[in-house]
Design a protein that fits this description.
The chain is mainly alpha-helical. Among the domains are: about 80-170, Glutamyl-tRNA Synthetase, domain 3, CATH 3.90.800; about 315-365, Helicase, Ruva Protein, domain 3 (Orthogonal Bundle), CATH 1.10.8; about 370-465, Arc Repressor Mutant, subunit A (Orthogonal Bundle). Helices cover about 50% and strands about 10% of the residues. It is built from 20 helices and twelve strands. The chain is elongated, with a radius of gyration of 32 Å. The model has no long low-confidence stretch (mean pLDDT about 95). The structure holds glutamic acid (GLU). Glutamic acid (GLU) binds near residues 8, 10, 42, 184 and 198.
Length: about 475
Amino acid sequence: MTVRTRFAPSPTGHLHVGGVRTALYSWLYAKRHDGQFILRIEDTDRERSTQASVQAILDGMAWLGLEADEGPYYQTQHFDRYQEVLDQFLAAGHAYRCYCSKERLEQLREQQIENKEKPRYDQHCRHLKLAHRDEPYVVRFNNPVEGEVLIKDMVLGDVVFQNAELDDLIIARSDGTPTYNFTVVVDDMDMKVTHVIRGNDHINNTPRQINMLKALGVTPPEYAHIPMILGSDGKRLSKRHGAVSVLQFKEEGYLPQALLNYLVRLGWSHGDQEIFSLEEMCQLFDIHNVNKSAAAFDTEKLLWLNQHYLKTLPEAEVARHLAWHMQQAELEVDDGPSLEAVVLALRERVKTLKEMAEKAKIFYRPLANYDETAANKFLIQDTLAPLMDIKQRLEAIDDWQVETIKAAVQQTLAQFELKMPKLAQPLRVAMTGNTISPSIDVTLYLLGKPKVLNRIKSAGEFIQTGA
Ligand code: GLU
């Protein structure tokens, strides 16, 4: 048997990290078993589905590298097929037309609530076996009335539902459109899905879907219902808690490796290992070890992982992601140091790519003017001679490296018997307009020799002429 899993988001909003974790687990399960991972967009709810949301799903999955082996499929392209199975169901007596009016259903509901019974359809039309009438109707599934459905859930263990508790659910609305539970059943069957991994908010749908699959004569897939992700206050993770959409995490400067590593560990463990490469996840991930109980999202831990990956991934890989942030900040990176050099210089000092891009700005922007306070304090007569001295020494460097720059700085300090800040601060102001920059040798190195010499010259002129 070839393992086939699917991720089946409804494109009605952003791609939530909870959904991403479901996708990741499905993806890993397929990889671990040399299987296939399918992406299926469940867009039949035309009022709530949007193209922007479809795009956010595709972009999010691409950014994370969770490539689908098949798809994206779109349920809106399968309407003919749903109709075909619906007709089969009706012909075989697995479903029936229900002509009950809204008023009747409302009355029934009120009555049941009054009698302290669970509100449910009373199978009125099922028993009448009505001939087709020219009136509006919905189609209901003939749910078995006896027996039970046992789900051997890979995460929750055995979960039992009594058929007597399940409704004859509506599988096609009065406008003819199929409902969620029905389209999922048809697609899971047609796509030969062997393992359904999804959020445990779907657990009540599962017995209904299993009964329909059985009516179709197919063996239901295996199921794994994974718990929700909670916010730090124990409530379901939502916008109130901060970033929840995967693209927001991208914008905030997280690496996909960090987010994937964080999400795989959220509710699953392998001993006390914290760091997992994607290859390791594929080898080690076991759906049976996923926790039954919900886990809380911990931004600090995600940041820690992000820092880890910023420091340890190949610089070219980090630079590729940094490039996106530089673009967002509308920085032209051709005129400046290579992004790899920036990554190497700054990776130890930041927690996110966004911070890195922020710090890197100065290497790509022309120096417009000096911050007044900084200039009044550091671009003054006292600092002119040391600045001119370092300029000469830097000019003489052939091999422009952090080490050679550092040596030149040390020589000027010794020459004038200065402590580091007395030289570094005026240099910073000369380079960036203010006193904020990475360490001075790294700053000079990244700016490059021509710009450095030019800017020291300008600072010297400013000291002498005030302009
Ligand atoms: N489309 C459903 C949702 O986004 C998921 C369906 C499923 O996984 O069976 O909640």
